[in-house]
TrEMBL record:
This protein's record includes keyword Protein transport: no
Signal sequence extent: none
Taxonomic superkingdom: Bacteria
Record InterPro entries: DDAH-like (IPR033199)
Record GO terms (molecular function): amino acid binding; dimethylargininase activity; transferase activity
GO BP terms, alphabetized: arginine metabolic process; citrulline metabolic process; positive regulation of nitric oxide biosynthetic process
Keywords for this protein: Hydrolase, Transferase
Protein family membership: Belongs to the DDAH family.
Catalytic site positions: 173, 266
Name of the molecule in the record: Amidinotransferase
NCBIfam families: DiMArgaseDdahMtb
Length: 280
């Protein structure tokens, strides 16, 4: 750990994941997906099990939603909803191939007893495009989530929602180009419009800046508990940058899930409970 940075503290998290039982790539809705390339579903399950075990070994709670046949992308649980301070905003998918996932995840939250669950009016792909950083939500648009959805999120959560425009189709969701590290972030500037880059520089002058190679191995599709940062094992230079800032990077191989255009963060939806006093 670097001397200039304080020890980072982990806090216990609550995650929702979906086993990739029916994972395959038989349609193409992002540039990473190639239906001609074979997918090893058994290996995907094994890699995913290791991620779940890792979350658990770090002291986090992992709940599971039952996978549904015919919804191969359901493994990317992060897209299923956004939860802030106990309030759940359902997802509404851009592509018809994933449309049925929205209601399935919403039902899971209702069945789990969450009191505030809003069915989305506008297209939004959950934590794929909404990332909670402290008391702010960073919100992607450009490929999936529509700008009108950002105002809908702000009305539900009651915290500032800052819109960011993605411009590179390889980084079609915000969580492919930006990761939350407690109150800090790391991101790849090249994925954003010049104006959005300015906004990010202004809000997070101390952010870890990733280069294109780090972003291309999905190094930014990472999950942080305040101290540990789980990220694809190929992102070694990014791991070194994290270590230099006092974080504990943990690399993992999710090569099969990368074939669908997702990695660690995509597979991990965070359930953020209501702060003391319950939801406002
Ligand atoms: N095949 C999925 C899609 O294109 C991948 C989603 C990855 N999830 C994420 N949070 N970026 O929708």
């Amino acid at each position: 750990m670097s001397a200039q940075h304080p020890a980072r503290t982990a806090t216990a998290r609550h995650y929702l994941m979906c086993r990739p039982t029916y994972f395959t790539v038989d349609y193409r809705i992002n540039p990473w997906m190639d239906p001609a390339k074979p997918v090893d579903t058994a290996l995907a399950v094994l890699q995913w099990e290791r991620l779940r075990e890792l979350h658990r070994s770090l002291g986090h709670t992992v709940e599971l939603i039952e996978p549904i046949p015919g919804l191969p992308d359901m493994v990317y649980a992060a897209n299923g909803a956004t939860v802030h301070d106990g309030r759940v905003l359902g997802a509404r998918f851009r592509h018809p191939e994933r449309a049925a996932e929205g209601p399935a995840y919403e039902q899971w939250f209702r069945d789990a007893g969450h009191a505030v669950v809003k069915t989305a009016e506008y297209v939004n792909e959950g934590e794929g495009d909404y990332l909670v950083v402290g008391d702010r939500v960073l919100a992607g648009t450009g490929f999936r989530t529509e700008p009108a959805a950002h105002a809908e999120a702000q009305e539900l959560f009651g915290v500032p929602v800052t819109g960011l425009t993605l411009v590179d189709p390889r980084f079609y969701h915000l969580d492919t180009a930006l990761a939350v590290l407690g109150d800090e972030i790391m991101y790849f500037p090249g994925a954003f419009s010049p104006a959005s880059r300015r906004v990010l520089r202004e809000l997070y002058p101390d952010a870890i800046v990733a280069d294109e190679a780090e972003a291309l191995v999905f190094g930014l599709n990472a999950v942080c508990d305040g101290r540990h940062v789980i990220l694809p094992q190929a992102a070694t230079t990014l791991a070194a940058k994290l270590a230099a800032r006092g974080y504990e990077p943990i690399g993992i191989d999710l090569s099969e899930l990368l074939k669908g255009g997702g990695s660690v963060k995509c597979c991990t939806l965070e359930i953020r409970h209501a702060s003391a006093g319950g939801p406002r």
